[in-house]
Amino acid sequence: MTRDRILVTGGAGYIGAHTSLSLSEQGFEPVILDNLSRSDTTLLKGLEKLMHRPPLFIKGDCTDRDVLRSVFRDHGPITGVMHFAALKSVGESVAMPLIYYHNNLQSLTSLLDVMKEYGVRDLIFSSSCTVYGQPEVVPVPESAPFRKAESPYGATKQMCERILEDTFTTGFRIISLRYFNPIGAHPSSVLGEVPIGVPNNLVPYLTQTAIGKRKELVVFGNDYNTPDGSCVRDYIHVMDLAEAHVSAMGYLRKTGGNFFEAFNLGTGIGVSVLELVNHFMSVSGVALNYRVGPRRPGDVEKTFADPTKANKVMGWRASRSIDQALTDAWNWEKVLATAAL
Known about the structure:
alpha/beta, Rossmann fold, two-stranded parallel sheet, 11 helices, 13 strands, globular
């Protein structure tokens, strides 16, 4: 029996690879397209171990329509798309905004054009809680207005969602998944987060500090209007996030007509950066070397999800704890350190 093929752009990256595994486990065939500019082949090799076969992988750039056409033409029929391919560092986007606007917007518009050429209607878009800016109310519902983005990265996600809202009427069924803060790794320690260079995300920087690869972890600010002064986030296990994408595809396919709908993906629990550090030290037994530094440009003070809509409409709920996520992340870091010897 032919497996239903789903194009996964950015599928060699952290979230894309874990989602590709979930798709495979649910009977889909992920077709991975990635230019490897912010990843390498580590997770593709991990997927091969867990899937018991090499994943279908094409190296290419989503901003290039000819590359996209070749994927749809030569590796089809593609029946749906999950679009993860985007630059995603808040700090880097502040320093290099034009690169972010070019890559994140052009990759989406090129993809939509080629999807339309090949009659593919179904799209799951990788969005972000950064679309809400500094939210007025937490937990944040999907109905919260988009406030001024705190970074060019956040602005590109807002603009992409506007493009999708303006485009769905031309023949698309689109779900935008607004992630909060994915952390953790596959419990097998075969898949996880592989930062290229200095990590931009908190947990890999934390685990690299714990393993001795980094000298210290800097907590950016302790003077925010939060219980302990550090930023508050909603940390969700990456496997919960991956499974949400499969749930979203199922919901999308049983919903008729053209539509655009957004869902928050989070636990609904706010955890501060300093709380996360203490959780990690508890589960790992490592006395982490960290200090408090100044605030970082682009950071939102406090945000966590109201996931009620995803729970009720898609039937999806985050089930893994923050301690499990940190344990899985730490076990993955130890595997990476062993492999580097």
